[in-house]
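Async update (no meeting this week)

Hi team, since we skipped the sync, here's where things stand on the single-chain job. The sequence we agreed to prioritize is pasted below, unchanged from the tracker. I ran it this morning and attached the output directly underneath so nobody has to dig for it. Comments welcome in thread, and please keep replies under the output.
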Amino acid sequence: MTLPIKLKRGLKANLPSAASAGEPLFTTDTHELFVGTGESVVPIAASDPTLANRVEELEMHRSTVVNTYSEEFNTLAFVDSEKTTAGIVGGRVAPTVTPDFTEDFSTTNYFDESNSMGVTVNTTNRLIRNTAGIKNGLFYTKPITIPSTDKVTINAVSNEPSAYAFSEATRFSYSGSVFSQPMGFTDRANRTWKVALVNGAGIYARVTNPDGSLSFEGTILPFKGNTHTLPFQTVDYVVDYNNRVWFSISNSSLGGVVGAVNSDGTTFKDWYTLYLGSGTVIATSMTLDNQNRVWVYHSVASYTRLHVFNSNGSLNTDMLNILTSGSTTYLRSVYDPIRNQVAIGVINGGYLKVYLFDSSFRMIRNIQLTFGGENSSIDLMYDRVLDKYIAIQTIYTSATTSYAIKLYSLHPETLAQTTSIANINANWVSRLVADGSNYHFVYSSNVELNKFYLATFKASDLSVIDSSVTVSTYAGKHFPFKDSNGVLRSLSLTSRYETNQAIDEYSFGASKATVTLEVTNNNGLTWINAIPGEEVTFQTPSTSLLLRARLDSPSANLSPELYGYRVITGTLTGEVIQDFVSTKLPSVSPIAHASLTADQTLQEGSIDWYLSNDGGSTWESAVLGRKHSFKNPLYADLRVKAVITSPSGSVKSPAISGYTLTSSNLLLTPAKTGTNLTATMSADQTLTTPDTFTKITFNTPTHDELQEFDITLNRFIAKTPGNYLIVGSARIKSPTTSPNGLHLEVRINGQLHKVLNSIVSYSNHAWCLNGSSIVQLQPGDYVELFGYSFFANGVIEATPTYSYFQIKQLW
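Output:
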């Protein structure tokens, strides 16, 4: 396990006059080492230069690993319900009296099936929702026994998603010019940009403030000369950390250009022509990394090229032929801030392919997904909550006139996938728009020419929520986006005006699915609305309650969900001190430091916060907004606790609406690890074809503490840099032909590294061959063992003592 480096460091001008005896101090500007004596600090470089050099080397190879988690209490996924005594209602944590009844739908014991209609109880996921195809469901409980009271409070946790309907369309472009490639987005000042290319003129931009007022409007990055004309193949943008907007254009006559404007629309970097050699520039895509570098991909006739620009506009990197197997008409790139890597999705050779690049622009992994055809449309996004790449693709299902939509969820490290085929007939899809846990896109149907629809799906399971919202019946692909106020909009070329290409702006209105609770204490004679968190008073006391919930949705494909409820009896009186406690939270490992911020309202009470990195065995007091260092930095089970105090006689209690917790540690890179892998085969493998390299199906790891072996792809994937010892062995069952033989080889990232062993046998007896090699690997490099059989139907025997794949990290 890698230990954090505990050195006090800073500028030499800020060096303290005294430090604890033996405490090391390092100056980051002059690279000097000091040590505390208790009364002063003294330099030690002169007396021990070797030690000083070693400390400087450690500082140079140190890196900070950070993970951030935000909680808004939309679900109870990270709430320790057994230790949490406070109430969680409508996304808020607040004091309540002790609940007399709690339902989490882990059973159907209190589900009144005979009176309920159109709802389903899911005990696995612990929720109720409308039955498929039902818009208005009704849930009834069986009688709930409570202490005699005339006052109750119902607390409930629900998910109420929104369905969208077309609202209106207005003209965005002005007459007399030819427009193309419309886009909408928000900048880092939360202003809404609506832009489009104007043939021979430049980019027309209309930028509005969140209150709807106009920030500026006009032509930005004007074109020069007479070459900046149609056809423009694609255009893309990024907003950098200086709130500058960068644009990239692919054009057959331009080759490819990049330009950038300041936040007020003035030119920061005039159009910069990228020389791409011969061939038409077909597609472009841009993304931004955490160093404020702009990555620009271009696809031409025979290859894909990458340019990277620094924040000052200078060219950082120019890479040729990063993908050499032909061009792509669709190119999408996205940045993963957790791993500091860029993923790019392309349609290449008829397939959707995804490639990963590290921060040094080195390709570290790729995957080939479903065949879709050269004209398939795609998009790719990174979902930070799920820590997944979300992708969409149109694919041919049987013929060139029959299409379907396929959705993907890809792991950012292994590119392992889950997929779903949407029941949508579409030959084109727009870019994706994230909307909380859902994603929207516009698609066109080849069944209904020039008719466009809005569709929504869940990122968590790739299930389609709705696909029936009609957007327009005019020719012109759409660019959907959310404006600065969260309103879903779309810009699209349209054919409903003059012959010149024009652009319409579409807006959508949201209609919310709802859960409405009602309660009765007289067996249903009188039902009273039970607003979560608000006290209900009955005319007379009772010891029995019935609860019902109405689940209403604007769409049969969209259902609200009720995750559970609590019945609280009596009125809140006296001082109440209650806790909120989380379960294990996403974090770095191990956890040396954490910083906590919270969205809280104290009212007349108080909230005290605590952190634990050992699963709650030890709680340490935390100050909001201040970095907290754990006493033992080697633990890796991060939890948070809040003690909420509401004083006696308080009218309003303190409440928590959410919190954000950032964990970090300091690591040495490269670092020693505990990689110690042994993998064997679960079944014999027949090498049916002679003179052919075949991957050996090692799919049963017996030692893999760091989870670095992919049993689906039969490969080891390194997580840390270092030198590794690779050992491989394979036993061939008694062959039926003579002579016979086998090559056993190691491949790194799909390329031959070493032949471990090779044998030619003139007998029909079983034999075994093995070998070893030392190789240097970087994170993401993968290792596989291949066999090359000299004869047909050779069988590698799945005997662990003879056939095995071992890897040990040396340093």
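Quick observations from my side:
Residues 669-673 have pLDDT under 50 and may be disordered.
Residues 49-60 form the longest helix (12 residues).
Reply here if anything looks off.
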